[in-house]
Amino acid sequence: MKRRSWALFAAMCVIWGIPYLLIRVAVREFSPGVLVFARTAVGGLVLLPFALANGGFGPVLRRWRPLLAFTVIEIAVPWLLLSDAERELSSSLSGLLVAAVPLVGVIVAYVARSDDAGGGVLRYAGLLLGLVGVIVLLGLDFEHVTARALIEMLLVAVGYAVAPVIMTRRLADLPSYGVIAASLLITAIAYLPYALTHWPAHITAKPAWSVIALGIVCTALAFVVFFALIADIGPSRATVFTYVNPAVAVLLGVLLLDEPFTAGIAVGFPLILVGSVLAARHQPPASESAVPEAIVGETVACGDGAPTAQPST
Q1: Number of C-alpha atoms within 13 angstroms, CB side, residue 37?
Q2: pLDDT (tens digit, 9 = 90+) per residue, 73-107?
Q3: Coil, strand or helix: which one is 229?
């Protein structure tokens, strides 16, 4: 890769690795619903000029049904559940659980009879290995996990795995910026009434800056950089950084929030990582002009999510 490509790649490793830290800080004062509104409103408004300059919203809104389904499954619900789960879970553990999205994606591809459902023995061995990693992670760190938070993270993973199917089949030929900006703004409008009635009376600096960073850096800037990376090296190679994001989440959580580096993380993360790499093998070539892999994952993202290989946080 060229130097510019390496710089973009390194930026994405960090940009979609920090949302878990920022969410953990933000939910100290912002309720999950308000946080989703603030993040999507900021990100959507920043991306609005890019969307208008790249085809506008006409073609996107004409397919409002799949767009709405994608928005709900990829952003509106997962970002709410992730924010709520991080009121109990550490940012490190949240990042590692989202790293298991490719494992769920294999199951979703099989159920949906996707062209990507195959992959041979290595892929299913990766699925098994990754599942063992999740079991080890949760088994050794069980005292840090509540049933509610675990269910929420499971639903986040399912959403991040299902949304790419909608994107690939119904939205992949549309302008990428238009799809992302429309999804963010639709989510912000939906959460606006809740935000107006639940806005915190007092906001300190760290949570406030965390929300701003989530909207500008981890959402708007993330997609600008990611689309530039795709243009440089293609969508399949561009998604490799998603395997680095969980390690960044763990590192930041341990260094900046004094979160424990547990035995579950030490043993479970390598198993999840290797399993996810194997499970994501043998994907069909993606068109350089389509960006289905760019949309998935925090998620869409911002680290909460993961392009095909993993989430938009």
Answers
A1: 17
A2: 999 999 999 999 999 888 888 887 777 776 677 67
A3: helix
Q: What is the DSSP letter of 114?
A: -
Q: What is the pTM of this model?
A: 0.80
Q: How far apart are CA 302 and CA 77, in angstroms?
A: 15
307 within a domain of the structure (yes/no): no
| Averaged pLDDT of the chain | 80
Q: Are 85 and 136 in contact (CB under 8 A)?
A: no
Domain count, the chain: 1
Q: Which residues pair with 312 in a beta bridge?
A: 301
| Element holding 33 (H helix, E strand) | helix 32-53
Q: Biggest alpha carbon distance in the chain? A: 55
176 domain-assigned = yes
Question: What is the pLDDT at residue 139?
Answer: 65
Phi, psi of 289 (to 5 degrees): -90, -20
Report the first-to-last Cα separation within the chain, whole angstroms.
26
Q: Which residues are CB-neighbours of 20 under 8 A, at least 6 positions away? A: 86, 91, 92, 94, 95, 98, 249, 252, 253, 303, 304, 313
pLDDT band at 7 (very low <50, low <70, confident <90, very high): confident
Contact 295, 268 (CB under 8 A): no
pLDDT score recorded for residue 10: 84
At residue 116, what is the residue type?
D
Reading the block at residue 63, the tokens are 């397919």
Task: Identify the domain containing residue 146 by its residue range.
Answer: 3-295
Provide the 3-class DSSP secondary structure of residue 312. strand
Looking at residue 53, its amino acid is: A
DSSP 301: B
Residue 54 placed within a domain? yes
- Rounded to the nearest 10°, the torsion over CA 241, 247, 253, 254 is -150
In a domain, 122, yes or no: yes
